[in-house]
Write a structure and sequence with these properties.
The protein is an all-alpha fold. The chain is built from 28 helices and no strands. It has helices spanning 2-10, 14-25, 31-47, 51-62, 69-87, 90-107, 110-126, 130-144, 151-167, 171-188, 195-205, 209-216, 235-250, 254-265, 272-276, 279-291, 295-303, 320-329, 333-349, 355-368, 371-384, 389-403, 407-424, 427-437, 463-474, 478-485, 489-503, 508-517. The protein is globular. The termini are far apart.
């Protein structure tokens, strides 16, 4: 009965899993088995949107005098996570997490100790104390080591580490952490499904959009599934569709964007984790509305992210400069001011000025038509990244400079913005930037000189695809390529499919022939 409850949970049959676990608990006497089954019941209740029932189940289990010490620590750690999601009370979450940490260390249980540290990482991240958050998540990873029994928790912690490094503008370290996570997965032989979407989000912000799409694959048939230790069942699908839709929309590939939007918007938003991970989808939906000429509706869609609720993680600062821009375009200065103030609050919460601070500079510059803050934002993105933000900040700077009558400087900023958008193939962004500057008589320099990337043939391959094609020509297997390039096998297979399609090839032998024809010797 207990094993069936686990299986139902893993299959996503949450109501059945909860029912089976509840029935099993009526006949079980073994304390360890009862503890495990309470754990499954709690997880099933959370996934079914019954957070209050889940907390009650945890408290009932914790009230048992027979509960083994290691399971008491584990349940306290899970209770802390549930408290944050259900109530948003970070102080109460911290208190429970510290209890769990003490109990885990006393019991010598690495899982409970690391889980409690991820709880503390979570509350520090919500408070925007990313330096302290990084310390907690690093400790969690050290506690877990390479124990194969804790693969889910380690994956969760690695995701958290990458997330926090991004928030601190430590992009090379985020990439290195992703690489180490994949190397560890390859050594252990465990699938690295959980890294696909995390890698795609990272690649999006780094401006490596083709690589982001390759991480996600052609569809969501193999989308990362349930990891039973943590509350993240739908987050991967929401982000998968959101990132895919946003890239397609910005590239003006509207049919592809619409398909991803339809699938993503059909997913229910039931938990706090769902809300926290729908932001790319919301941004993509707002973009689609803007492209249809519905500026005010686009503004309202983005504004739905505000205010950030108690205990909510969502990185709203990522989208607030666009909200300010849309509000000003719609003639709603009050909405623009509200968005700028929300971004100022996010920046003020950062204990180490980083991404929210740069976003706030953009908001302030747009709101007040002041090139000073926008120039600071451009300098920030140029020095630290991420690459995706730089052309948008340059575009905003160009508009404000033009409004101030500084057409020459505006043209310089616009030209660089468009050049960088071209590198992303962000056709919609180019059109929008030029439309915003046209009333001021500002044009980009060198118009019509850019080379279009070929659609087919060797010239159509992206830099990453060229590398992989050369490795295929050398005779490397999919596993070899995955190991050398620090990619998942699934992502390598996606790249090879893209290469075959662009070359009009049927198999690896055809890739070898084309590589030889291009002068690439195996």
């Amino acid at each position: 009965m207990a094993s069936l409850a686990w299986a139902l949970l893993a299959a996503g049959s949450y109501q059945e899993a909860a029912s089976q676990a509840s029935r099993a608990l009526t006949v079980m006497t073994d304390p360890v088995r009862r503890a495990e089954t309470h754990w499954v019941l709690t997880r099933a209740q959370v996934s079914a949107g019954r957070s209050d029932d889940a907390i009650a189940t945890m408290r009932q289990a914790l009230a048992s005098a027979e509960l083994p010490a290691e399971w008491r620590a584990r349940m306290l750690a899970l209770l802390a996570m549930l408290q944050r999601a259900a109530t948003g009370d970070l102080d109460a979450t911290d208190a429970t997490a510290i209890q769990a940490l003490t109990a885990g260390e006393e019991a010598g249980d690495a899982f409970a100790t690391a889980h409690a540290l991820t709880d503390l990482w979570l509350t520090r991240s919500v408070r925007r104390d990313h330096v302290a958050a990084l310390d907690h998540i690093d400790r969690a990873l050290r506690v877990l080591g390479d124990d194969p029994g804790h693969a889910d928790l380690r994956s969760f912690a690695q995701d958290g580490c990458i997330f926090t490094l991004q928030n601190l503008d430590r992009w090379p370290q985020a990439e290195a952490t992703l690489r180490r996570a994949r190397e560890a997965s390859q050594r252990s032989g465990n699938p690295d499904r959980a890294t696909w979407v995390t890698a795609a989000v990272l690649r999006y912000w780094l401006g490596e959009w083709d690589d982001a799409l390759a991480e996600l694959g052609p569809d969501d048939a193999d989308a990362p599934g349930l990891t039973h230790s943590f509350l993240r069942e739908r987050w991967s699908a929401l982000l998968l569709h959101g990132v895919s839709a946003l890239i397609a929309g910005r590239r003006d590939e509207r049919a592809a964007a619409d398909q991803q939007l339809r699938q993503g918007l059909a997913l229910p938003i039931q938990t706090l984790a769902d809300r926290e991970n729908q932001d790319f989808l919301v941004a993509a939906h707002a973009l689609a509305l803007e492209q249809s000429g519905e500026t005010r509706q686009a503004m309202a869609r983005l504004a739905a992210m505000l205010p950030r609720r108690d205990g909510e993680m969502t990185l709203i600062h990522q989208w607030l400069p666009d909200l300010v821009r849309l509000a000003l375009a719609a003639g709603d200065r009050l909405a623009a001011q509200a968005a700028a103030q929300a971004c100022q609050a996010e920046a003020a919460a950062e204990t180490h000025p980083a991404r929210a601070t740069a976003a706030s500079l953009r908001c302030d510059g747009l709101l007040e038509s002041d090139p000073g803050p926008l120039t600071e934002a451009v300098a920030h993105y140029r020095a630290l990244g991420p690459a995706t933000e730089l052309p948008a900040a340059l575009e905003d700077l160009a508009v404000v400079l033009a409004e101030r009558g500084r057409e020459e400087e505006a043209g310089t900023a616009l030209t660089e913005a468009v050049s960088r958008y071209e590198g992303l193939q962000a056709r919609w962004d180019i059109r929008r930037a030029e439309d915003r500057l046209r009333p001021h008589g500002v044009r980009r320099r060198g118009r019509g000189q850019r080379a279009q990337r070929a659609a087919f043939g060797w010239a159509a391959l992206t830099p990453t695809e060229v590398k992989i094609a050369v490795m295929v020509a050398r005779g490397d297997s999919t596993s070899d390529i995955a190991r050398v390039m620090s990619l998942s096998r699934r992502t390598v297979q996606t790249y090879i499919s893209h290469i075959l399609a662009k070359l009009g090839a049927k198999g690896r032998v055809d890739i070898v022939r084309e590589a030889l024809r291009q002068g690439v010797s195996p």
